[in-house]
Amino acid sequence: MINRELIRIKVVQLTYAYYQNGNRNLDNAEKELLFSLSKAYDLYNLLLELIVAVAREERRRVEIGSQRALREGKELPSTKFVENKFSTQLEDNKMLKQFVEAQKLSWEDNIEFVRKLCNLIEDSSLYQEYMASTEDSYEADRELWRKLYKQLIQENADLDAVLEDRSLYWNDDKEVVDTFVLKTIKRFDPKNGSRQELLPEYKDEEDKDFARKLFRATILNADTYQRYMSETSRNWDFSRLAYMDVVIMQIAIAEMVTFPNVPISVTINEYVELAKLYSTHKSGGYINGMLDSIARYLVKTGKVMKVMEPQQPREEEPQAEEFDV
């Protein structure tokens, strides 16, 4: 689940924090990086467990409603939603059960949020249409939860507040982790029953090594990489650049130099997007131009043995925004 997009985000965050922290201990910073990534995997499982928590709360409501209906001689409430084939399969999932038990992940302390989410679901047109429909298929049940997640969980300010209270890491992670939860819902297959595989923490050991190597190369070769910046940037005064711009370019150079199998265009595109997210409003265009020039310099001087794609015409790049560090 922890892919390179998320790794790059964490490396940017932890590299910036490393330089802001007076105690620059690389081993401790690396442990913090890996811990931060592991917390993203906790969030992935916690969000899947939220679906289970909603199903349990809805089951409780149906049981209470059934008891009341029997006492009053009224029609029993529908069990269609609580018997949703996807949510019941997820509730029985062995991987999810083992993980939440081992990590002690639960929604019990946030039951009021779960109940509020249940109310949102019951009031939604998706729920109303589902309950009124005569269709009875696994695909329809799974699709309902995919849509509910996208509409009521993916963008939910109350959930964001709950997650912020539970962990300092999770709000930054949620947007990426949401995509993996939706991917997981989509790939569930009724034939797999309780043994349906969830996404692993890392796809393979290579991705875990990518995080370590990228972070260490960034820190250990900082002087070299900043010299590359200086040699290709018309000798701009780095003390007057947005500090995050320097950090992002330093990490991008580390990736170009350290990972021969990652195309230069991929690296540049990834860090331009991160600059838009984490630095100033002008940083994306500036870093795009700078990294293109740096990459050409590294290829020309033999420091990077990669193919450099032909330069595409682009609008004039904005100058770096001045920012006193």
Helix content: 55-70%
Which blocks of ≥5 consecutive residues have pLDDT under 50? 313-325
**Average pLDDT across residues?**
91
> Given the helix and strand composition, which structural class is it?
mainly alpha
The share of residues in extended strands comes to under 5%
Shape: elongated
Number of strands: 0
State the end-to-end CA separation: 36 Å
How many individual helices? 14
* Biggest β-sheet strands, sense, barrel: none
Radius of gyration from the alpha-carbon trace, in angstroms = 24 Å
* H-E string: HHHHHHHHHHHHHH
Quick recap:
The chain has 325 residues and is mostly helical. The chain has helices at 4-20, 26-72, 85-91, 94-103, 111-123, 125-132, 138-153, 157-166, 170-187, 205-220, 222-231, 243-258, 264-278, 283-300.
How does this structure look, described?
The protein is built from 14 helices and no strands. It has helices spanning 4-20, 26-72, 85-91, 94-103, 111-123, 125-132, 138-153, 157-166, 170-187, 205-220, 222-231, 243-258, 264-278, 283-300. It is mainly α and 325 residues long. Mean pLDDT is 91; it is low at 313-325. The protein is elongated and about 85 Å long.
Key attributes of the depicted protein:
14 helices, elongated, single chain, disordered C terminus, 325 residues, mainly alpha
SSE blueprint:
Blueprint lengths: L3 H17 L5 H47 L12 H7 L2 H10 L7 H13 L1 H8 L5 H16 L3 H10 L3 H18 L17 H16 L1 H10 L11 H16 L5 H15 L4 H18 L25
Helix pairs in contact: 1-2, 1-10, 1-12, 2-3, 2-4, 2-5, 2-9, 2-10, 10-12, 11-12, 12-13, 12-14, 13-14
